[in-house]
Each structure stands twice: as structure tokens, then as C-alpha cells.
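Table 4 source record.
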Amino acid sequence: MGEPLPISVVIPTYNAAAFLAEALESVRAQTRPAAEVIVVDNGSTDASPKLAEAAGARVLRLERPGVSRARNVGIRAATQPWIAFLDADDLWQPDKLAMQWQAVEHCPKAGIVITDFTEFDSSGVRLVSFLECRENYQAIVRREVAPAVMCCDPDSFQVHFLRGNFFAPSAVLARRALLMEAGLFDEAMTHMEDRELWLRMLPRTSVAVVERALVDTRLHASNATRDSIKMALGGAMVAERVLAHPDRYSTGAPAYYRRERPRFYLNAGRHAEEMGHVRQACRHYLRAWWVGGGLRPLALALLTLLPRRVRAFLREAAQHHPRAAQPSRIR
């Protein structure tokens, strides 16, 4: 195996006993091991802390839980100059850290190294390669410096990353000093907090990418990304933060989020209305209108004030109207 790499693995966990042992085994199976493994427990009531201790991990327990806080506590407690994140329900391929370290050596200016990843569930692999499916990643200017190892042009990366996230936290290796300088994860955010941090880090560094799927991300009912309302509002919170402090974020971020902010609130309203949360939907529609979404969100907000049957009738009529097929200004 060789000498341990100067990497601290940070794993936040909450009642993840069903998955944690397998995740930790994937860390132990690395061809180039990390120097330390830190499991930050978010107040689990199952066997997660005992499983972590039995696996030899350093276990930290939180009194005020939250995934962002857990990651921040792990980063602050780390003794190594590089941080590798792993969610407790995900898995690493055995050469994940070895290939990322190869990228560190070939792209010395990179403060972030990511890998491609798969998505799987109880039925098997659902997506073989995430990066191959992302047009915005494929558009980035990059050069191959070793087999499957890419050094990316920083300006090109920032521009195309704005069009959509393609970092899985479990696929990220980052310099600890860079994470600290950027301000760590925003603990007030429960969704999209990772993207918000990456946007703060990108102006400070370049990125290297290993174009091999070295991480397997697990899809299940408890994934935070399954909550469509909170995901939409998470995007809106990113927009609000970028527009409040534009100098902290990557090039082009303020213009992008000024344009896209109404869409996040509009989508939150749609999801809320689909779930029957009509008053909540009305608030989100009104916010979309207030931040520049045009008259459509205002009309949708007014519709929520009508009885359910009337709303259903009007929506049905709108779907059959010749203009209904025309694209809206907000996408």
C-alpha cells in the first residue's frame, strides 16, 4: 500500500448504520490509504458511532447536528493538508485516492480534485458516468496530463460550472487551507450548501478532474436531494447569497443568479402546489414575481386563492390553449 497519503477523510453520519460499514470498508480498501478517517456523528440513535469506532475511525459527536456543521467540524479537526469527503451512504473504488493524488502531482495549482461517479440504487447501477451526461462539463477547456487526469482552465471551468453542479461531495478532494480560506460550508443551509461553497472556492483555485467513475453514489428514499421543494429553495438561497455578496463568488455568478433567481422560487411554488401546500406555493410565486419573474408567477399566485376545482379547471383549459405550448420566459 505504501505510505499513507496526507489526506483526512471526513464522513458525516446520522443513523446510517445500514450503509456506514460498507462505506468505511471502501476507505480501508484504498490502494493508497488516507492518513486519518474522521466520522462526525450527527446525534445518531443507531449503531453508527460504534461501527465507526470498530472500523478504527476517529469519532466526533455533535450536540447541534447538521450535515454542514458536521463537515465543518471534521475539517477543523483534521490534521492533514487535504480533505476527502465521503457521505456515509456512498462508496469509493479502491484506486480513488491514488488517482486523485496522481492528479495533485500533475496539476500542482489545483486546490480541488474531483472524479467522475456513478449512481446506483437497490436494483443496481442507474447511471454509469455522471460527467459524460453533463454538457457543461464536456464544454470545459481542459488538457490530459496523465491517463484520465485533466487539468482544467480556471476561467472556462467557472463559466460552465454555473450552468449546473457536477460535483458529488463524495468525489471531492480539496486543500484544507482553501476550504478554511473560503469560509467552509454555510451551516444555515440544508440543501445546495455544497454548490454554494464550491462557487466561493473556484475564484481561488484551479480544478483537476479524474475522468473515471471512482465513486458510487447511492440513491435511496432518505437522500436530501429527493425533497424537491427544499432543493428549489436551496437554489434560491444560493442566489440570495451570491447577489448579497457578489465579490465572494466565481466570475459570472451574480449575473447568472440574478437571471435564474425567479426560476428557483417558481419551481418551489410548483412543487409546493403539487403537494397540496397552497399557501406556501402562493408565497413562493409572489417571491418569484417580486425578484423579477414577470407576470406569470403573479398570475399563479392569484390562482392559488381560488377553490381547488376552479384551479384545476383553469389549468386544464390552459393546457389545451394554443399558446400553452409556447415556452415561458422562466425555465
